[in-house]
Specification:
Arc Repressor Mutant, subunit A; nine-stranded antiparallel beta sheet; 264 residues; alpha+beta; globular; 9 strands
């Protein structure tokens, strides 16, 4: 594939550039920024994209839009096949000026993959200019998804949040977290509630359930997805999943096979 990243983002004559790479589980792309906008998407595995005071979880049914100049860091969870697009500043006018998770429709998915095979889009070529226009229209119209979790700012609570993200399968009690940070459970619970807007247990559960989405979209059955994300009981997993996403895990897979505007 002709896969290139933007050099300086200006004056190189292209509207869209692409990057297609595979990463192993745990690989981290350290904090960096681009003068171009970036659509972060993966056809396999899940990515955790941290930007500012928040982290987004990106399964294959979603993408993250990062406006130009937004510092971010990406951690791979599972073996990830990334297919990402960089959009020149002149093409980002009218697009969201904040980081956001987006639902990836079948059309947007195929367009991303098609542009990656092309490598880049030259606005001086009429057919390339049309594709760039369709791409930005689809990004602008894509429904947002609630894949964001605010990160606590206190170092003790942040360490717990990072551990939750890296170990969604772990079943140990919240009390055990105090041994990792030196803070009491009551202190950690207070910090999570004040700094993230939700309880420590709710934060952990959302991480687990979003990881379950990645397992399901990767082909796991409901029982295995629940076990992989820390649930001993399939019925408890189904109940928690339905409460979070509005549908059962089995129904979720059916909905995602033919997306219909359902938002996470």
């Amino acid at each position: 594939m002709g896969l290139t990243t933007p050099r300086n983002g200006i004056g190189d004559g292209f509207d869209v550039r692409s990057l297609g790479l595979s990463y192993r589980d745990g690989f981290t792309v350290g904090e960096h920024t681009h003068p171009w906008g970036q659509l972060v998407y993966g056809i396999r595995g899940m990515m955790r994209v941290a930007a500012g005071d928040a982290v987004w979880f990106v399964p294959p049914t979603r993408a993250i839009w990062l406006p130009p100049g937004r510092p971010h860091r990406i951690v791979m969870q599972g073996n990830v096949a990334m297919r990402t697009l960089y959009v020149a500043p002149g093409r980002t006018i009218g697009l969201r000026d904040e980081a956001v998770a987006l639902e990836v429709s079948p059309l947007l998915r195929e367009l991303i993959l098609h542009i990656v095979t092309m490598g880049m889009l030259d606005p001086n070529r009429v057919e390339h200019d049309r594709l760039a226009g369709v791409l930005t229209d689809l990004i602008a119209e894509a429904p947002p998804g609630n894949l964001r979790l605010l990160l606590p700012t206190d170092p003790r609570a942040r360490a717990v949040a990072e551990w939750f993200q890296a170990n969604p399968h772990e079943r140990r009690s919240l009390d055990a977290m105090t041994n990792r940070t030196g803070g009491s459970l009551r202190t950690l619970q207070r910090l999570f509630a004040r700094q993230t807007g939700i309880s420590m247990e709710a934060w952990r559960q959302k991480v687990r359930l979003i990881n379950a989405v990645a397992c399901l979209t990767d082909g796991a059955n409901v029982t295995d997805a629940g076990l992989a994300c820390g649930y001993d009981s399939t019925s408890a997993f189904i109940a928690a999943f339905k409460k979070q996403f509005g549908v059962t895990p089995g129904r979720y897979c059916e909905v995602e096979a033919v997306p219909s505007g359902f938002e996470m």
